[in-house]
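Regression report. Comparing outputs from two consecutive submissions.

Submission 1:
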Amino acid sequence: METLENSELCFPHLFNASCRKPKRSQTEAVVIFILLSFVSLLTVFLNLLVIISISHFKQLQTPTNLLLLSLAASDFLVGFLMCFQIMLIDGCWLLSDRVCVTYQYFAYIITAASVGTMVLISVDRYVAICDPLLYSTKITMTRVQICIAVIWFWSFAFQTMNLGDNLIEPGRYNTCIGECIIAVNYIAGLADLILNFIVPVTVIVVLYTRVFVVAVSHARAMRSQIAAVTLVTVKRSEIKAARTLGVVIVVFLMFFLPFYFVTVGGEDTVINFSTAAFVIFMIFSNSCLNPIIYAFFYPWFRKSVRLIITLKLLQRDSCEANLL
């Protein structure tokens, strides 16, 4: 009986100090392992394709694609962070408390940077579609690079303040050995909700609503045959952008809302992997979908993938290839 009870502990030799493993069948553990491993590998692979494409082919190095590169870089890192989630399938954290806090600290930073980059993408598309004549002067490579740097610095600084207590004393909120818990103060959680979710979502919705209105007006002009030929060309891209708008916003809200509901659910929200595994998985899965939503709809991406897979990018002057 004692042996059976010890087998349910994360660290049997520590007896009462050890956390207990959650009751989970072997079949369930295998399914979870396969699912997480697949999502992790797919996230790394898809975002790596985006990174290589934009970094290698000069024709793709535009302000818009630079934003996609930033988003792909953050999602690429998320794919690696999922390895830690895979380690927790049996419900036990086998590494140190400092590694636990560091893992979640970087997860917070990357998530905030990803959301910020999505806002920049919405601004870029708004200017391109609603004010195309001034796009080249308003949206430049230098300005985009500065905005990306600001987003990443803000994410780093804010999350350092948000998780300061956890960083100073790792494991202070653990109740037993084998647990990985961070605590977010209610005020800090509320600030995170407002600054890293409500404000970005509001900006995205407002800007894309304007894009949708412009696209609809152009579609009506095309049906009435009032628009000029040059306007028809712009109009088609706008309609395509409006068509993907619903997918972008719905997926973003669906995958991020559960997490923010959890973080502000009480006066002091404690996040552990046993109770928050689902919302963490939702956020990670969104990183797998981002390259599909933002990149797979572009013909140039399909062309670059063919060149990468066939290793033609290793040929001389392949970076000059015509992909548009």
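Submission 2:
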Amino acid sequence: MMSLNKEIKKTYLLLLFFVGALLHINAQSLKNNVVKSPDGTISIEIGIYKSRIFYKVTKKGKTILNPSFLGFELKDGALKDNLSVQKISHSQFDETWKQPWGEEIEVRNHYNEMKVWVKDNSIFSREFIIDFKVFDDGFGFRYEFPKQKSLTEFVIMDELTEFNFPEDHKTWSIPYNTEFYEGLYKPNPISKLDTVATPLTMESKSGLFLTIHEANLTDYAAMNLAGDKKSSKLTAFLTPWSTGEKVFAKAPFRTPWRIMIIADSAEDLMLSRLMLNLNEPNKLGDVSWIKPGRYIGIWWGMHMKKYTWEAGPNHGAKTENVLKYIDFASKYKFSGVLVEGWNKGWEDWKSFEFTQPYPDFDIKKITDYAKSKNVTLIGHHETGGNTKNYESQLSDAFAYYKKYGVDVVKTGYVGGKLDGKELHSSQYGVHHYRKVIEEAAKYKIMIDNHEPVMPTGLQRTLPNLMTQEGVRGQEWDAWSKDGGNPPEHTTIVPFTRGLAGPVDFTPGTFNFTNTALPNTKVHTTLAKQLALSVVIYSPLQMASDMIENYESDPAFEFITSCPTDWSKTVVPDAKIGEFVTIARKDKASENWFLGSITNKDTRTVKLDLKFLDPNKKYRAKIFRDGKDADYETNPYPIIIEEKEVDSKTILSVELARSGGVAIIFSQL
């Protein structure tokens, strides 16, 4: 019996060896099928198993992704089986390019590339290419469909891209169907995810930080990620049309890049420019007309029910009220004044007219006065989600604004699905948003897009796309029935939505009494409101509050001093959901600005100032939580003090619950 068992065991082991060898041959028989990052730490291998193509990823020999299959379900037949690799090519690229605006001036674009030509051996005989680019901080890949007789116009029903993780990582996510992406990011293991929006950020047990997103979303549907509840595998889920299809395409055709940032720390996630590098360079030519800035608006007064959007006795967009805001903006060197509710259509939110102001809004008088004060009127186009109505007026609307010197427009799409049927992140929505941005560029108009599709780095190609919402912003602190954004929200946003691009969060509320909904409030201290001007990046940033709540408060100095365009950004310390410290250097001076915030816990932060010029002394003007400051019971106490510091200084600062500290560093 023992001899028989040994024979069975021997036969079993031989069988395992044979199967393993077969898999090894299938996976490794390709030549030149590995591409590594320039520093050699990240490796991507492409392989074939049972005529299906897969990729796998490692960093320093540690598995990041197990074999993960690639492919599509097309309307006229699957493109996932019967595949073979025809050719593989390799190349390298290294450049440094300059941003017209951003978190730093220069961006290095350094990667190794592997292109894989794939043949479909079914009766359809189609071809496609998978293009991998591997950077020192992650990778991106996309599919390309060259022009071919066997594939002209086609319909994508599903994209089968997989991300098969070796561990059940902790994630921070919002559900894919969260309206306008305005949700609270919640921690969950991968295995508990249903279908979530990207960016999806993860922390592994070994301490690596990973973010999945996409770059250059053009003529395609947004990618979401679907879990399977039984494993740590995620699969692409494209936002569908109302009729069920995902993408209508015509070869030659390229998908957006599927990207993964791979970082050794949470801080490093925020410093990745991989997404920007996978977008096309600026195609607008001269962009000297594009100007970052900080502005004010009559907006918070509307949320507090002091003003109305529609015409009436309390109309916010009355000429005399706007002129008052322009005077304030001029006095404190704000770049502009945002005015919502200026045009006809607010009564029913359906028939907006974009060249017809209400009778009590004198646009010529307002813009002439603003110009004399070196201030610009920031325009507003709320569409109510009626894209057809908007597109029918688009050229006239931008020409009208251009006539009056309005060079920034905030667009909005509140009102459920686009035209009552299509999702914002569908291919339909992607087409519409691109059309608006490109049309605005013809008139040299900058765009702040609200209720958008999730940003994917298009600001590199179209730098007039300045900032976007797509986040549960500060307006929720005015009217949300759940009481407002919780303290940890802004310690998560920089590592999730913030990785997709500039965030129009609108920090800067100074009055914490909600006259409209007393049970809803801003859940921060005053010092944290200041710090958010640095922590949450946007080249166009609005100070949210009504002007009467600013002028007598000495803390207002930080708001009026803090720029929105930077030459360098560093992240000294952070822990997702708990705290974050960010320092940025002003593009127009040698000054640095620092913001540090915490969640609902009090915290002592140690601020290492090694980012300062080692050969210089600085005056640090510190705005920190005062004695007994507390976001729930006493948000106002703030201490403003000055200290002489240098690059060797380490400041110890006590943060109140949901508190913060904001610092201006001026060279002596």
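Expected: both submissions complete independently.
Actual: both completed, but the second showed a warning that disappeared on reload.
Relevant detail on submission 2: The two ends are 89 Å apart (CA to CA).
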